[in-house]
Amino acid sequence: MAINYATVTWDQLHRDARLLAEQLIPHGPFKGIVAITRGGLIPAAIIGRELDLRLIESISVVSYDQENSGEQAQGEPQVIKPAAAAGDGDGFLIIDDLVDSGVTAKLVRKLLPRAYFACLYAKPSGRPFTDRFVVEVPQDTWILFPWDTAPLFVPPLARKTG
């Protein structure tokens, strides 16, 4: 399967997080947020501000292994830091940047069954595991988040040789 890439800028991420926060207001009030690290940390901070929530907990789940080739392969998810303050999730909002295959989301939902799960972006395989998302992305698209990329100098077209 060919992989397509979509770049999300800081501005776009911020707009999408604010839009998600606006959509979440009718589902609250919430006691706090559980951010799925690492991708959910920045959206959780933005949404926490917009919903006026100060209690932001995190859960750390590792499900991608780095192979020798440098490629990432999805393995069995492991919780390396639980969300102790959230209990069973009652009154909490789970935030992630993306639900892809649903492997991480399924595990977190099992641990926090009473929480409301929201993310910025969802792929078709992961959609059933989220309660709310902003943008659906094709399954074959790899999202490049602002924290995964760096701005590079691009020479003017007039200097291009060839």
UniProtKB/TrEMBL annotation:
UniProt: Mg(2+) binding residues: D97
The reaction(s) this protein catalyses: GMP + diphosphate = guanine + 5-phospho-alpha-D-ribose 1-diphosphate; XMP + diphosphate = xanthine + 5-phospho-alpha-D-ribose 1-diphosphate; IMP + diphosphate = hypoxanthine + 5-phospho-alpha-D-ribose 1-diphosphate
Gene3D superfamilies referenced in this protein's UniProt entry, alphabetically: 3.40.50.2020
Keyword Glycosyltransferase set for record: yes
Keywords in alphabetical order: Cell membrane, Glycosyltransferase, Magnesium, Membrane, Metal-binding, Purine salvage, Transferase
One Pfam family matching this protein: Pribosyltran
Gene name per UniProt: gpt
Subcellular location: Cell membrane
Organism the protein comes from: Endosaccharibacter trunci
HAMAP family assigned: XGPRT (MF_01903)
Protein name: Xanthine-guanine phosphoribosyltransferase
InterPro entries named among the record's database cross-references: PRTase-like (IPR029057), PRTase_dom (IPR000836), Xanthine_Guanine_PRibTrfase (IPR023747)
Enzyme Commission number, as recorded: 2.4.2.22
